[in-house]
């Protein structure tokens, strides 16, 4: 019969065990960026960049055959001091590397991502308003409410009925 003794580590032994465990752990994702995919869209977020002359920086999406930041598909970061982001749409299946370069020249991080969905061959339909008219000055759109549409319809209907009544009345022969 064997008796097990509890293994108690203290001092330098515990520190060495912790260092060994950390060295054997898989590498953590880049601390400065977070990369995600949704279908054939790749997006990256970071909080590492600061705005300089109106620019937060640039993110680059590199294929396996591309080696430098400038060779990838570059997108300007947008956002606020709370966080910046960039996205690439219609990305083909494969493994990519995302690099974020802040406007001050520092690299916020580098991370690999796998895209498993193929891009759609036709462009996705654009959203249209359920009511109202798209367009206007400067590409703005106006979405009218139900009350406005009902009131406008009532005015138009009243105008049509009034016009028909007036024209009918004018076309009757007058009796003397």
From TrEMBL:
Protein name according to UniProt: Secreted protein
Region (Disordered): 116-135
UniProt KW keywords: Membrane, Signal, Transmembrane, Transmembrane helix
TM helices/strands, residue ranges: 144-167
Lineage: Bacteria, Bacillati, Actinomycetota, Actinomycetes, Kitasatosporales
Protein species of origin: Streptomyces thermocarboxydovorans
Biased composition (Low complexity): 116-132
Signal peptide: 1-30
């Amino acid at each position: 019969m064997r008796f097990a003794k509890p293994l108690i580590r203290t001092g330098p032994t515990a520190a060495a065990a912790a260092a060994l465990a950390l060295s054997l752990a898989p590498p953590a994702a880049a601390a400065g960026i977070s990369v995600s995919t949704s279908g054939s869209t790749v997006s990256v977020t970071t909080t590492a960049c600061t705005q300089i002359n109106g620019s937060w920086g640039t993110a680059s999406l590199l294929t396996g055959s591309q080696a430098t930041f400038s060779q990838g598909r570059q997108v300007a970061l947008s956002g606020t001091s709370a966080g910046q982001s960039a996205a690439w749409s219609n990305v083909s299946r494969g493994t990519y590397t995302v690099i974020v370069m802040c406007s001050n020249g520092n690299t916020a991080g580098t991370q690999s991502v796998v895209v498993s969905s193929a891009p759609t061959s036709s462009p996705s339909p654009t959203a249209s308003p359920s009511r109202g008219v798209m367009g206007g000055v400067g590409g703005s759109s106006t979405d009218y409410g139900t009350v406005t549409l009902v009131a406008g319809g009532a005015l138009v209907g009243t105008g049509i009925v009034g016009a028909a009544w007036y024209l009918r009345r004018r076309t009757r022969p007058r009796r003397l």
